[in-house]
Write a structure and sequence with these properties.
380 residues, alpha/beta, Rossmann fold, 7-stranded mixed sheet, globular
Length: 380
């Protein structure tokens, strides 16, 4: 078994162990006697007109405030007539996110939509909501609790597969025949379950190339808080250790890819190394148009928000949510089977920017064409 696979399973073991310990401590502290405890016990969300939206941070990607926030507010407002929405961003702080959820519950919010900063720590939010019979929708990132009510996201293993498949299809374009092809892999935050799924999907595509020796995985790490500055430092160190002999940079999202590209610029390698990304941010698409980044993964956030809104509407009406989930479930580490809506991601490179993110209105030409020569890839 490769050192990476050992690391991946060890990471899952750590998360599972943390979850079990957390559940034990929570049970020890819980003095409640039923699922409808608390001064604002809800009716399982039926008839609810107060909704809390809690998002994780702003540093990992511009998407949270620029896209998810307004789109979720729009979708929930359409789902429930006259709804009151309490919105908060945890700014990368799990303790703050729990406090924000507690405030929402104390104020009578009867449905919570939570983009978790930490997939394990957010189980505390689910436990407190359950005590008041308030359903929780895990938005974009799974919360590791069997008591979680719903999960709306994308097929996140597929995200990693799209990244890995792109590398598998294009890596030979970035090397001289006969020379070993070296790749560094900079994954997302280990506290985000999605980062593990992206990595899993990428390895499904790349492990056969590692086993055959076609690709040499010379460095791999998870990056705390998806921090692009840390990602840049990781890339700088790896480039120095390899005497700048790197052909591929698997990077889990666009923001970190920007940090890696900064490191490549210093080494005079920008545009000469295959760089992946994710989120289809304006900066990421701009980097593709400039030739610094090779691809990104577009997750149509408007659809994710609409799926969340449809679920909120069904909860409000008290109708069967299986019509939306179609029986799909996602497993939590503590044995839960969480009813899920999983939308499909899309690979984007220079060949289809115009027909995807521009055509959908996700981004505008003005947002992505700064510094790009007119006519580039039919976009600018």
């Amino acid at each position: 078994m490769s050192s990476y696979i050992h690391q991946r399973y060890w990471m899952r073991f750590i998360l599972t162990g943390s979850l079990v310990l957390f559940a034990f401590l929570l049970a020890a502290c819980d003095t409640g006697t039923g699922t409808t405890a608390g001064p604002y016990a809800a009716n399982g969300g039926k008839g609810c007109t107060k909704v809390g939206i809690l998002l994780p941070e702003t540093n990992s990607s511009t998407r949270w405030e620029n896209k998810d926030h307004p789109l979720l507010v729009q979708a929930v407002s359409a789902a429930i007539p006259g709804v009151h929405i309490d919105y908060n961003n945890a700014q990368g702080n799990s303790t703050l996110q729990l406090q924000q959820a507690e405030t929402d519950l104390a104020n009578g919010d009867c449905i919570l939509i939570v983009g978790a900063h930490d997939s394990v720590a957010a189980a505390a939010i689910v436990a407190k909501a359950k005590a008041q019979n308030v359903p929780v929708i895990a938005y974009d990132r799974l919360i590791q609790s069997r008591d979680l009510n719903y999960y709306v996201s994308f097929d996140n293993v597929k995200v990693g597969q799209l990244q890995g498949q792109y590398i598998a299809e294009h890596y030979l374009d970035y090397t001289t025949r006969g020379r070993p092809v070296k790749i560094m892999m900079i994954n997302g935050s280990q506290t985000d379950n999605n980062a593990l799924l992206f990595s899993e999907g990428a390895h499904m595509a790349l492990d056969p190339l590692f086993s055959s020796g076609a690709l040499n995985n010379i460095y791999e790490t998870f990056t705390a808080n998806w921090d692009n500055n840390i990602a840049q430092s990781e890339a700088e160190t790896t480039l120095a250790n390899q005497n700048n002999d790197i052909q591929i940079a698997y990077v889990a999202n666009d923001a970190m890819a920007g940090g890696v590209i900064n490191a490549l610029k210093v080494a005079n390698l920008a545009g000469k190394v295959l760089v992946t990304g994710q989120d289809a941010t304006a900066a990421g698409i701009n980097a593709i148009l400039l030739g610094y980044q090779s691809m990104t993964v577009y997750k149509p956030i408007a659809q994710e928000a609409r799926s969340t809104g449809a679920l909120v509407h069904a909860i409000y009406e008290g109708t069967d949510t299986k019509l939306l989930t179609h029986g799909a479930t996602t497993s939590s580490y503590d044995g839960g089977l969480i009813p899920s809506i999983l939308d499909q991601p899309v690979m984007v490179d220079a060949t289809n920017i115009k027909s995807t993110v521009i055509a959908d209105g996700f981004l505008t030409r003005n947002e992505v064409c700064q510094g790009v020569p007119p006519g580039a890839d039919g976009v600018c």
